[in-house]
Amino acid sequence: MTPLDVLSFTVCATAVAVAAEAAVARRRRKALRRLAAEWRMTYSRSDTLRLAPKVARGFPIPGAANLRVTDVIYGIDHERYRYVFRAEFTTGTVRSKRRVARVATFSEPRDRQRAQATPSVTLAPENGKLVDQYRHLAPAMTPKAAKPQAAKPQAAVPAAITGGTAAPPGDAKGAVPDAPRA
User: Fold this and answer.
1) DSSP per residue over 18-44, as a string?
2) Cβ proximity of 25 and 49 under 8 Å
3) What's residue 147's pLDDT?
4) Which residues contact 29 (CB under 8 A, 6 or more apart)?
5) Which among 51, 76, 133, 182 has the fewest CB atoms less than 10 Å away?
6) Which one, of 99, 105, 55, 100, lies nearest residue 75 by Cα?
7) CB of 103 closer than 8 Å to CB of 92
8) Strand, coil or helix: what is 103?
9) What does each C-alpha distance from 85 to 5, 58, 60, 80 come to in angstroms?
10) How does pLDDT run across 31-70, given as a tens digit for each residue?
């Protein structure tokens, strides 16, 4: 095998791996967008809300390093801002180091004026796919309040139809009254 063959094989194998990773990431993002729509929340593929510093302060795994927040689903849940996201971090300090991706959640009050302690970050169980971990941390679904429908105003029946007296709304000529009239 010539050096040019080795180089071309390496370049082709890398291109295939990059394309496969891009296809998997695209499917994951599509599934998370659907999940966010189902929860009536918003999806962002990156940490545009800058949650990483807040999450790092209250992260439940001691010694986790190089924390990165991605695939954020956020919205309002019971007068609080609710965030469900993918947390990628490194564990291990002395011997083996391992990069781990888990889904986590936390919430904070909408009123930014109130002082809040370090947010309590909750992690999903390790087992299962990432989308299953998101489902495990699904926000409590509060049904949207139905908008009251305005009652249609009923016009009074003209006196000519009722024989000279104006009938109350809903009492038209030919209707059977509940009690005899005097």
Assistant:
1) HHHHHHHHHHHHHHHHHHHHHTT-EEE
2) no
3) 45
4) 43, 45, 71
5) 182
6) 105
7) no
8) strand
9) 43, 14, 15, 16
10) 999 999 999 999 999 999 999 998 998 899 988 899 999 9
Q: With contact defined as beta carbons under 8 Å apart, do 107 and 51 qualify?
A: no
Region for 50 from its dihedrals, namely left if φ exceeds 0, alpha if ψ lies in -120 to 50, beta otherwise = left
DSSP for 108-177 reads EES-TTS---S---EEPPSSS-HHHHHHHTPPP-PPPPPPPPPPPPPPPBPHHHHTSSPBPTT--TTPPP
Q: How far apart are CA 94 and CA 9, in angstroms?
A: 36
For 172, residues 6+ apart whose C-beta sits below 8 A from its C-beta are 157, 161, 162
Q: Which of 110, 111, 88, 109 is nearest to 100 (CA)?
A: 88
Here the tokens at position 65 are 């390093």
3-class DSSP assignment, residue 81: strand
Note whether 58 and 118 are within 8 A (CB): yes
Pairing of β 122-123 and β 98-109 = antiparallel
